[in-house]
Specification:
Blueprint (H helix, E strand, L loop, with lengths): L2 E4 L3 H11 L4 E4 L3 H9 L3 E2 L3 H7 L2 E4 L4 H9 L13 E4 L5 H12 L4 E4 L2 E2 L1 H7 L3 E5 L2 H14 L3 E5 L3 H29 L4 H8 L7 H10 L10 H18 L4 H17 L8 H9 L7
Parallel strand pairs: 1-2, 1-4, 2-3, 4-5, 5-6, 8-9
Antiparallel strand pairs: 7-8
């Protein structure tokens, strides 16, 4: 099986490197310098998606949104123009499940398969090989893909038909976004009233409010050399998608809708590409307190 990978950003690049441990990989990214870096690591860098597709039976994509996925598949020099009948695309993007189902239907007419397989656990989880891979597919497609996904992580889950993987990822991210926003607000309350961030971190990690945010995000705020992990804009996109699907399916989400607006406020103040943890800066401004040590 010849495998291709499109989208070599923070997450996609980490996933691709896991695959490269056991598979010869053809890769494409819009940035020539990224393609060159992967070529130096042993991948075959391709000049376009269609060139990659002509060489591969299986292509994995990991892109910012479903719009980019659609363009990579159906745009000029897209994957659909080069893939053979019976080929499969596994989209690891946190995307729009309805858009994914539409693309799967369009590809089915060409006898090309599309499944969704978003991941949860952050780039550090991808690097460590502990990330969760959430697969929306038929049973046969899942069986076909499982050995490939196992190269990335043993934590592989089948959720049902195409689109259900992305639904589950949206459920995860809308909860995670709400917990992060509430945690940062709570810490602002504590610091404004005499606590310090380190004290909050130590106690929250041992109490009933412990979460991914208290275990990783809050301690990260204490590190002056912390690195970008995920953007405010992408988290807002995920919460917006969750509330859009909720509206379409008649599920009230008043708390998630409030969280969506919290993140939009932060984007307007700090920028789309700002690190997710800089949401704490909005809490500092609103509470008129310095939370993160200078």
């Amino acid at each position: 099986m010849k495998i291709g990978f499109v989208g070599l950003g923070r997450m996609g690049g980490a996933l691709a490197r896991r695959l490269m441990r056991e598979h010869r990989l053809s890769v494409f990214d819009l940035r020539p310098e990224v393609r060159q870096a992967f070529a130096q690591e042993g991948a075959e860098a391709m000049a376009s998606p269609v060139a990659l597709a002509k060489e591969c039976d299986l292509v994995l994509t990991c892109l910012p949104t479903s719009a980019e996925v659609r363009d990579v598949i159906f745009g000029a020099d897209g994957l659909a123009a080069g893939l053979k009948k019976g080929s499969l695309i596994a989209d690891m993007t946190t995307g729009d499940p309805n858009a994914t189902r539409q693309m799967a239907e369009m590809l089915r007419a060409r006898e090309i398969e599309l499944i969704d397989a978003p991941v949860s656990g952050g780039p550090h989880g991808a690097v460590a090989g502990t990330i969760a891979i959430i697969v929306g597919s038929t049973e046969a497609q899942f069986a076909r893909m499982r050995p490939v996904f196992a190269t990335i992580s043993p934590n592989i889950f089948h959720t049902g038909g195409v689109g259900t993987g992305q639904i589950m990822k949206l459920v995860n991210n809308v909860i995670a976004a709400g917990v992060r926003a509430a945690t940062f607000e709570g810490v602002a309350l504590g610091v404004k009233n005499g606590l310090d961030l380190k004290t909050c971190v130590d106690i929250l990690q041992k109490g009933t409010a412990r979460s991914y945010t208290t275990e990783l995000a809050l301690p990260g705020l204490l590190d002056p050399n912390r690195k970008m992990t995920f953007s405010l804009g992408l988290m807002h996109k995920d919460v917006r998608l969750a509330t859009d699907v909720a509206a379409q399916s008649g599920v009230p989400m008043p708390l998630a809708s409030a969280v969506r607006e919290v993140f939009l406020t932060a984007i307007n103040e700090l920028g789309y590409e700002t690190d997710l943890n800089d949401l704490i800066r909005v809490c500092e401004r609103q509470a008129r307190v310095a939370i993160v040590p200078a």
